Amino acid sequence: MKDLYIYYRVRSEHARRLQLTVLALQQSISREYGIVTALKRRPEEQQGQHTWMEVYLAIPDGFDMRLEQVVAQTDLITLIEGKRNMEYFLDCSICA
Predict the structure, then answer these.
(1) Phi, psi of 56 (to 5 degrees)
(2) What is the CATH number of the domain that holds 36?
């Protein structure tokens, strides 16, 4: 299984709304798939924005398509400046 990390920039004034939206989304999808999720933010602000990261650990195949469906049901995209970047990583402790 792989882990999914999604990062993007959000204007500081949208921080609370973004946090509530993502945490609700993650709680729902975590229950559905039984996975561990996290929401992180860089501590420093740059040009009135923070970088945020959604974390989804040990996701099954097809998870990213379901996640996009869930995201489309929220206003998350309207809070993001620019692109929502998705990257996948493998747990190296089990790769060997």
Answers:
(1) -130, 115
(2) 3.30.70.600
